[in-house]
Design brief:
Helix content: 25-40%
Radius of gyration: 19 Å
Oligomer: single chain
Low-confidence stretches: none
Structural class: alpha+beta
Shape: globular
Length: about 210
Amino acid sequence: MSTNFTVGNDTFASNPGNANLNPFVWLFHDFKTIFTISALFGFSIFLTIKFSGWFGILAVLFMAINIFYWLRKKEHFKSGDSNGGMVVSINPTLVAVTTDLTKGFGEFPVVKIITCNTLKNVKVGDKIATVALYSASEDDDLPHWIDFHPIPLSFATNNEKVLKRAFESYDSEQWKNLQNRLEKIRKPYKEGLYTSETQTSDWKSTNIF
């Protein structure tokens, strides 16, 4: 059993992504962040060598930020929860994903709509694989997670076998749930977390149950 450093080891995904992060694939989708933290690390090393060893403190800090960033992304796709997503808009490209935020007791269905402008060659209705991490509340007694953060699996890998394996792990009920819940969200679709206290009312964008 692998040990995560940036993801909690006390809970486990019901359908883990089990995908290895390809840095060169991911680079295309988060170039600005990667460039920024890498440049800061490089510049801090330059200051350390050129001016003073005291700048080494900054170099160590930015090195730690870089290490944490890549470990977090690696563990996201390896240990995160895999769910099917659907493209619901183009320009901007929006993807909808549904899950149950329950921690094991009760049902807390939600739909998350995310912006994926680097997702190319897709059209409305296309299905994609995603992997998500979940956010916990500061209230340990809350019986559900408060949010989840899906990312298209194709942002991490271009391995067709891995992508196919993910699709095969989604059953028809999951796709049906996504379609039914999307019908309760008013158009035009907008980015956000959607939930409802009842299954018959319109779903609202909110981060609080």
